[in-house]
Amino acid sequence: MQDIVPILLGTAGLLALVSLLPPLAQRLRMPFAVLLAAFGVALGSVIHGAAAIKGLGPLGDFFTALRGFDLTSEAFISIFLPILLFETALAVEVRRLMEDIGPILLLAVVAVLVTTLVVGFSLWAFTGIGLIACLLLASTLATTDPAAVIGIFRDLGAPRRLTMLVEGESLLNDAAAIALYGLLLGMLTGGQEADVWKATQAFVWSFGGGMAAGWACGRLMCLVVTPMRNLPLAEITLTVALAYLSFILAEHYLHVSGVVSVVAAALVVGSVGQTRISPETWGGLVQVWRQLGFWGSSLIFVFAAMLVPSILSGLSLADFGLLMVVVVAALVARGAVLFGLLPVLSAMGAADRVSHAYKAVMTWGGLRGAVSLALALAISENPDISLEVKRFVAVLATGYVLFTLFINGTTLRPLMRLLRLDRLPPAELAMRNRALALSLSNIGESVQVVARDYRIEPALSQEVADRYARRLAEIGELTQGPSHGLTERDNLYIGLSILATREEELYLKHFREGIISRTLTEILTERAGWLLDGVKTSGLAGYEHAARKAIKFSRQMRWAMRLHRWLRFDRPLARRLAIRFEALLIQRLVLRELTAFNERKLAPILGRTSANELGGVLERRLMMIEQALAALKLQYPDYATALQRQYLGRAALRLEEAEYRTMNAESIISQEVFNHLERDLDLRRRQLETPPRLDLGLDLAELVARVPIFQGLSQERLRGIARVLKARLALPGETLVRRGERGDSMYFISSGAVEVLVPWLQEPVHLGTGDFFGEMALLDGQPRGADVRALGYCQLLVLDERDWRRLIERDPDLKTHIRNVAEKRRAPAPVET
Question: Quick one: which H or E segment has residue 728?
């Protein structure tokens, strides 16, 4: 038991000291990572000095415990790195990451390779150390640590895209640098040949394999966690296990990059976790991971920084000169990628343009941190590497990390101010002023109401109200200036972006309330993402194109149709139609909520003209939804009724639960009574979770009986006809017959309607229930003479050519009727006089 006490004392003491640093960093306006590094270096110096001091009591034991910590580089990487990477990736918005995936991959992979080559060859030119050793050192310095940079960005309110670029780079460049580091280490120690082609293949395999392994682990975790809904302890624990399991399985069993695997797994959980993990748990999960990330990043930084005094104790003038070579070469390499290669990528259309100000900040803000120190420590621990190379790597890696933190990190804030990146663009500044004016407009009156309630003297309340009135007048002057105003195009762009974002939030809100299913939420949030992407690429045209795409039949629906036609397998088609029905209902509900949101929130900020235009856009979307929904309701009215009844039942349960919670909060009912009521609610909620079954109505006997031409026949003849016919469902707008193709079947319309596009007629011919088409090509043996398109959902009976011949030979009356109809269709249309 005594052996564990020093470890607990050291760890607990460090956490206590680290917890004091964030408020100190805010007070000093210094990046937290820089303060952590300074604290670690100072603590390392004190530990060595306190060895000779006696009688310090618990403080001396604390220093002794820290001096006795023997954390290897493997412990650094295996214990702390999965936590740090998982926490960072979990907070990233995957859709926004994908918007800039081109420049992010350029920075994460290409920049790592370029930095390794430039720094490595520069050192090789100035030292007698071998090229592989120089490249190995360069690979440890190629990974960036965004902690300090992101902190500065948030303090100054830097543009969101700049923050996303740096965060995205940090997610993947650790993986790229560590994979490259492993290859070079193998070459230096003799484990691998110095073959560029093989090294490239190994790098691609490690990176791609890690991505695939992490994706598989993340998806598996999402499947496992779904049955654990409303069990927060189990759900959160599973994500912690995922961080380590994805790392260990990839690194030690699949022999691919464990770092990439952790990142990929976290991105999967972050993208679909809100629909797989119970809504009550998700907020707590994010907070738990923030706490774990804070502990992990703080401890790894302090432990690594504590080693700095011993490493740099023998720093010479020659070492300082080599350090300057590393500083200059790394800046040149990073600048070459950002200012040289990134514009080429933008010109090719693979990435959006990045401004020179952004590139300057990203060049200077490429800080290095604990990962570089951990990799350098691993080299110093390797028995297969010479002492000269160990010292070379340890001194330069440590010196360069400290340079980027204490020089680049402390001067980044002034650089951003110089480049005016701490200021809002004119359009966003105008939005800020309008929002501020709206929020201040009613505060004066509200303050006076509060003063009356608290019996505060009217003169004091009037003083506060006058102060807000003066601020409102100042804001009003700013919003009237032409240079700070928004054009109608700006207003429309901002409004559409807000509506698309709000739409996604509303889908998640209805999911959290238990109104819509997980599957439907994933589909609808993805479609809301299409809307936002469309706004960013093409403004209003892009938004409306995405809206039309969102109500078209999906790829899954078309595959289900193929299964229905080729294999007579109807269940997937029924499932996709049911999902479409549900999706249209929820989209209609959300569009009405967005219309109210536009009137209530956007109109006062963007102005009446812009709000009217946005309302028109929403109204057009609503009309498309109504038309698509009406077509489904017409074909399946019973299912529409059952689905709406189920939604109403879910809403009633939600209101009932809210009432119980209010009564429990007001102590009207005890916790025991509330728990009993909750169990009853859960039982009824599970009964409402299973959607009603959609019957496609493709029973052959029923369909044959609906066709007038078959009515009056005996049951035996009907059964014989049904045996040669095939039931088929057609979707609205689907082309059933194309002009010029070979006719191999004819169609009977059991329900629905189609239009026949005859080339010599100005208007299409409409056919409805009981009609048939496609017979003329079978009678003549000629190609199809017209296109036939479904006007709505149609239930058809299909008769192929072989069975057609057999049927009309057995039934002369049917053959005569079909020939008469065909002759009438051949007759030329009467000429109007």
Answer: strand 726-730
